[in-house]
Amino acid sequence: MLAIVDSGGANIASVRFALERLGVQSELTADPAVIRSAERVILPGVGSASEGMKRLHAKGLVDCVRSLTQPVLGVCLGMQLLFEESEEDGGVQTLGLIPGKVALLPNSPGITVPHMGWNTLLTGRKPALLDGVEPEARFYFVHSYAAPVNAFTVASCTHGTPFSAIVQRGNFSGAQFHPERSGPAGARLLQNFVEGRV
Amino acid sequence: MLARRIIPCLDVRDGRVVKGTQFRDHEDVGDIIELASRYRDEGADELVFYDITASSDGRTVSTEWVTRVARVLDIPFCVAGGIRSLDGARAILHGGADKISINSPALENPALIGELAREFGSQCVVVGIDSRTEDGDWFVKQYTGDPSKTRSTRWRTLDWAVEAQKLGAGEVVLNCMNQDGVRRGYDLVQLKALRALLHIPLVASGGAGEISHFNDVFRLAGVDGALAASVFHKGIIAIPKLKEQLIADGISIRP
Q1: Residue A88 to chain B, least CA–CA distance (Å)
Q2: CATH placement of domain B5-248
Q3: Cβ(A84)–Cβ(A52) under 8 Å?
Q4: B21 CA to chain A: closest CA distance, Å?
Q5: What are B's interface residues with A at a Cβ cutoff of 8 A?
Q6: B29, B19 in Cβ contact below 8 A?
Q7: Taking CB atoms and an 8 Å limit, are B94 and A13 in contact across chains?
Q8: What residues of chain A lie within 8 A of the CB of B5, using their CB?
Q9: What is the interface pTM, i.e. ipTM, of the complex?
Q10: What pLDDT digit, counting tens, does each position of B26-57 carry?
Q11: Which domains are assigned to chain A?
């Protein structure tokens, strides 16, 4: 069973629908026991990091998510929450599973923030999550804050400055873009995750 | 490099897609799911659904069709029309929409922009602006969904867009009403003037009639996305051919 963590955020329905299109049943849940026993877990999220953490704390899910050992995929804010902290809303401690601090993308002439639209990825050795995805494929991004490129970055993206587009550490993966809204390339990434290619 | 977006806009009335000229005389152009699927398959980067009657009737958007669309689409979409509260926005976003766009309600209550941005994040909050050229300047119009209720506001367009950005809007869609539906090209002067004042994405709306108009609005006005309706609905411009040409012209576009 695949559990979608019900963090109360806004893009939960679209993640569930994307899985449905792949023929994958998922359970939207805030029950730690259900999440712990799931084969795989998706941590979605739209909105601010402080609201996202507040909701996880309120539902008693912080330790639950931190201690998961099965494959976990964070999407958009869900990926940012895997890092140690975010400077959003004056600073907030996040899950601390991947080192680094999420920061506001700087705007400059020709670089609008939020980073909104379809962009390409840069990879070294291609991660299994991108199996079957063309190197020039574009994914849909919509975010103002971004995670730095570090040792756990497996794909980066550049919008004025480079940032982490896909991260991976042990069983935890994250995508800054929205695979559920990224056409066939995004569907393939979700399928790779569901089929254990992480 | 971020791609410039091609955005078909579907005006929705009573669950059907409609299109008028200069906001009047709406004709039925098709079923929502059918058209949404067609545009997805043709390579649209995003879709906007405007419930054009909602604001002027004081109704809110039904979330039933939003969820039907969200099940089918694997590209982002934005819903506009009649969203005037956090609860109304929440229903649409939880229904599966990626963004909500507010226009007349933001003019009634500008603080709504900030409330929505704090609750859902700026990236979900689009402010739509209907702008008309008058006496050499641009002014914001309200309740444009119904010609009998359309009225002027106290806002200059450029001032209102900057105010919306300050309040927390994550994107502005500027609809240049003089150009709407007449297919003579986007209002490059107005769009360029606004582009220079905003650091959030700007989407052009109103005036697309041929492929070169898209090239012009991306190169000369520097907008992030170009929205169009009738040229797509009526098959005057095919999205695959449009994108092919823009790529050949050296514009960053998702194939």
Answers
A1: 11
A2: 3.20.20.70
A3: no
A4: 29
A5: 1-5, 40, 45-46, 67, 70-71, 73-76, 90, 93-96, 98-99, 118-124, 170-171, 198-202, 222, 224-225, 254
A6: yes
A7: yes
A8: 117-118
A9: 0.92
A10: 778 788 999 999 999 999 999 999 877 655 55
A11: 2-194 (3.40.50.880)
